[in-house]
Amino acid sequence: MHSILRRRGLLAATLAASLLGGIAGGAQAQDNKNTVKVGISVGNAEQIFEVVKKVAAKDGLTVQVVVFNDYQLPNAALAAGDLDANAFQHQPFLDNQIKARGFDLVPVGLTITAPLGFYSKKLKSIDQLPEGAAVGIQNDPSNGNRALLLLQQAGLITLKPEAVKNNTATPLDVVTNPKKLKLVPLDAAQLPRSLDDLAIAAINNDYAEKAGLSFNKDAVIKESPKGPYANLIAVRRADKDKPWAKRLVAAYQSPEVKSFIETQFKGALVPAF
After folding, report:
1. pLDDT in tens, 180-210
2. How far apart, in whole angstroms, are the C-alpha atoms of residue 1 and residue 58?
3. Nearest-CA neighbor of 112 among 54, 207, 44, 212?
4. What span, in angstroms and rounded, lies between the C-alpha atoms of 205 and 147?
5. Distance between CA 38 and CA 42 in Å, rounded?
6. Is pTM, for the whole model, over 0.90?
């Protein structure tokens, strides 16, 4: 009887050890996985990630890219587990999304700075901007603030100092507007399509590129690349120290990718690493 009980006890212990080993092995496999799915935005990022994929492949990491046409979706997809990482946003945008939607996402590495520009189909120079002109800006808080700061930098409006300090400017924070400009907040993706109806519009670099606009040649107001708006790679907090996350960042921040950005975009995009 005791012999049977001992055998049963040994069998149970063996099964438990086997199960625990399987769980640990599965977790370790997840930590060291060799295929990652990364969300990016349309435009220039697609070109850059072709190089990233080649560099990562040399390290045994397969990078699968999912392209988004909307800034609101990549963080939701990452938080839901449909992506392993995303690479499309700057820190102020991520901070705002975390505050508004409760995402537990963190940055793990910087990518590029994409200077914001105001574009026009009607003007060759910002000096030609007429009184009462319609001016398109992004309707999301971080990029809308960024566009308003650029208008202030160009001397077209003045904003409340506190809003400038806190990076929270909205059209309600405009103190002076000598030209009586009409600020028109729109979805970032819609702004290029609205240029026929606007005198000028703030257009993010990826959407500008997709619309055939060149930052260097076409922007009538240009943001300096030396600002706080470096884009980043984000992951779920639980994944920030995973080996695959570090390998992904290393692939992006490689000399090959840096050289491609500098050669291909000639200042319209700037490596932030």
Report:
1. 999 999 999 999 999 999 999 999 999 999 9
2. 60
3. 44
4. 13
5. 13
6. no
